[in-house]
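Pasting as-is:
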Amino acid sequence: MRKAHPSQLSLFDKRPATRVTSVRAWHDVQPHLSPVRAAVFAALRVACTEAGRPQTATEIAERVGAAGGRCVWKRLGELVRAGYVVEADTRECSVTGKSVLTYKPVDGQ
């Protein structure tokens, strides 16, 4: 029997609950974004929902992983200019410990 990939969920793993409104918003936004922007936007939305607060670029990069982590800063700026994301406030980053800007999805996105 083949072993599952380490990141693959089994039938018995608990999945985080996703709000129906988040799913609807994702389906509205996703067709209008490039795959990389869509991945960063999705990571931001999930992270903000799970943490209950806006996220820093480095926190989002941690979620995206090493392969896409370096592009997060650029994509967040593009998402802000496109109106999908807003700059929220500054706080201490949980990864770097520095006081940095945070981001959150625009309400209704």
